[in-house]
Design goal:
Layout: H1 3-18, H2 22-27, E1 78-82, H3 88-97, E2 102-107, H4 110-123, E3 128-132, E4 145-151, H5 160-170, E5 171-185, H6 190-193, H7 196-200, H8 209-218, E6 222-232, H9 236-239, H10 245-253, E7 257-266
Parallel strand pairs: 1-2, 1-4, 2-3, 4-5
Antiparallel strand pairs: 5-7, 6-7
């Protein structure tokens, strides 16, 4: 599929998810209608329920880490969340940035923006806003963010190089990011790489971890550190939709890994 078709696929899937609750997503194993014959989403997610600012209505179980845990957010910071969904990470970030801070969520799916705005209104937040837009071309002025977070989203962006250049543009000199994402160690079988459904589920859209970190470096980011890594196990019943029995057996023996990583990086302030 070409990049435009991939983006339309992601938008369609996540529009569907926006209309469902987290239990519905989990019961379907994948965050979309049907059973485990569809793409997996919730096998990646971490538990947010213990965090200050957590709001169950905003948690659709779509993340693959908790980037705010490592984001070094301070009271008064302006935080931008890329691919903000129903607002889960934004509300957790607000609890840290406080009343004097500001949180901006960016998402390309109208249904997610509507849900996030509704959640913010119910909570009475006046310093959290949600903007419709693409990560490759964000509706944000230069040098806006003290901190950028993102949770299992950048792997869905076809042009990751452009996305990280945009991240660098909107980050203040001296600012930093903490992103959780899905990466690979070893080459996926061709059937998985080519499966559009697995792209929407974050798997075939993932790149090699070394390539991911190099893209960040090439965008101008410095002091890049992997803060957390965990292996993702996609259930056999999902992989079996894309791989023949022998292919599935070979894949499980291959040592190829699908991982969630949380990465920290900085935009250096040349005046310091």
């Amino acid at each position: 599929m070409n990049p435009l078709d991939l983006k339309l696929l992601v938008k369609e899937k996540y529009s569907e998810i926006a209309g469902q609750s987290k239990p519905q997503n989990q019961s379907s194993c994948c965050g979309s209608s049907g059973c485990c014959s569809d793409t997996t989403y919730t096998v990646f997610s971490d538990d947010y329920s213990h965090l200050a600012g957590y709001n169950p209505d905003a948690d659709l179980g779509l993340g693959c880490g908790i980037p705010t845990e490592f984001a070094r957010i301070k009271p008064g910071d302006t935080v931008i969340d890329l691919g903000s969904g129903a607002g889960n990470d934004c509300f957790v970030a607000r609890a840290i940035a406080g009343e004097t801070g500001k949180v901006i969520g960016i998402d390309m799916t109208e249904a997610m923006i509507e849900k996030a705005r509704s959640n913010a209104a119910k909570l009475g937040f006046t310093n959290v806003e949600f903007r419709l837009g693409d990560i490759e071309n964000m509706p944000v002025e230069d040098h806006t963010a003290d901190v950028i977070v993102s949770n299992c989203v950048l792997n869905l962006v076809p042009d990751k190089e452009k996305a990280f250049r945009e991240i660098f543009r909107i980050m203040k000199p001296g600012g930093h990011l903490s992103v959780s994402d899905v990466v690979l160690r070893g080459e996926l079988p061709a059937a998985l790489q080519e499966a559009a459904e697995m792209y929407a589920g974050c798997v075939s859209g993932a790149v090699q971890v070394e390539r991911y970190l190099q893209i960040m470096h090439d965008a101008g980011l410095k002091n890049i550190v992997v803060q957390k890594e965990k292996k993702i196990t996609v259930p056999d019943e999902i992989l079996a939709d894309y791989l023949e029995p022998q292919q599935l057996s070979d894949f499980k023996k291959s040592g190829i890994g699908i991982f969630s990583i949380t990465v920290y990086a900085e935009k250096q302030d040349k005046n310091r």
